[in-house]
Design brief:
Elements: E1 5-7, H1 13-24, E2 37-39, E3 59-66, E4 70-71, H2 75-80, H3 82-88, E5 92-102, E6 122-127, E7 134-138, E8 142-146, E9 151-156, E10 160-163, E11 171-180, H4 186-192
Antiparallel strand pairs: 1-9, 2-3, 3-4, 3-5, 5-11, 6-9, 6-11, 7-8, 7-10
């Protein structure tokens, strides 16, 4: 497995603060335009980590973009992630969504999976806030990436990965990107040359 592309301090700190504030720390919650929707599972049932109690296999989701329906959020939220979209410089997005895992008393792994059933697609995870949760990647060896605010991890879609819960923040929030890029794109070249 080629080394993961990990970009710390991916966007300007003010932009990272704006994303965190909008998604999980709104100054005026009753005015927040960021809606979270309950998802009663995190990964496909056959991928679930067996040691993780089923009651912790849930999350809240916010859909930014879906290839079938296009932009699925309001203009304010779409513009919020523009700096990340600029970094990825994707040809076409298949999906962009945010996941929020509420804090619990122990860090649990959800289960190894791939996001979409396509090869030749890239994925990226942006960490919205710092916490004691992780992203795990399983190739030739297991790689653990700490959840550090403003970190972006880019990897090929076929790479098995898993997220976790956290214990030291109110929740663990990430934004997940799945995108197609042409063979000359730097991310594609990194994994395919």
């Amino acid at each position: 497995m080629k080394q993961l592309i990990i970009i710390d301090n991916a966007i300007h700190p003010d932009q990272a603060d704006s994303i965190e504030m909008a998604m999980i720390k709104p100054e005026a919650p009753h005015l927040s335009k960021f809606a979270w929707y309950f998802g009663d599972y995190v990964v496909d049932l056959k991928c679930e980590e067996k040691e993780t109690p089923k009651k912790y296999q849930y999350m809240f989701v916010h859909q930014f973009f879906d290839s079938q329906f296009g932009i699925a959020t309001n203009e304010q939220n779409w513009n919020l992630i523009q700096p990340l979209r600029d970094i990825l410089n994707a040809g076409n997005y298949l999906r962009i969504k945010a996941n929020l895992y509420p804090a619990i008393e122990k860090v649990h792994t959800h289960g190894f999976h791939v996001d979409l059933p396509y090869m030749n697609v890239m994925s990226a995870i942006y960490f919205v806030n710092s916490n004691d949760g992780y992203a795990y990647f399983k190739g030739d060896k297991l790689i653990q990436v700490e959840s550090i605010k403003n970190r972006l991890v880019i990897f090929p879609n076929g790479l098995l990965h898993s997220g976790t819960t956290c214990t030291d923040a109110k929740g663990r929030a990430v934004i997940n990107f799945n995108y197609v890029c042409d063979p000359n794109h730097a991310h594609y070249k990194h994994y395919n040359t």
